[in-house]
Amino acid sequence: MDASQIKRLRMEFNIPILEVAALTGLPSGFIEQIESQTVPVLESDLERIAAVLQTLVKARLKNR
After folding, report:
1. Where are the domains of the chain?
2. Scanning 6, 20, 26, 60, which has its CA 20 to 30 A from the CA of 37?
3. What's the average pLDDT block by block, 10 residues per block, for the chain (64 residues)?
4. In a 10 Å sphere around its CB, with 0-12 CB exposed, 13-18 middle and 19+ buried, how is residue 52 labelled?
5. pLDDT value at position 61?
6. Do residues 53 and 15 touch, judged by C-beta distance below 8 A?
């Protein structure tokens, strides 16, 4: 999953950056920069964010 996919998924499911930041341990400002593609990002950070988003999306789908 790349930065644009992360942003699209987060926005589609109305997941706040602060929630993603809290669960990944990454600063919210850094996640914003990743999503706007203004900073170089490690694959491991993208994987961490993607894993958290997938968990949150599954939980939201389950609660619908």
Report:
1. 3-62
2. 60
3. 94 96 97 95 96 95 86
4. buried
5. 92
6. yes
Tell me the HSE value of 63 on the side-chain side, using a 13 A CA sphere.
7
Cα–Cα distance measured from residue 29 to residue 33, given in angstroms and rounded to the nearest whole number: 6
CA-wise closest residue to 45 among 61, 30, 63, 56: 30
8 A C-beta contact, residue 13 and residue 57: yes
3-62 adopts what CATH topology? 434 Repressor (Amino-terminal Domain) (1.10.260)
What per-residue confidence (pLDDT) applies to 14? 94
What is residue 42's predicted lDDT score, i.e. its pLDDT?
Answer: 95
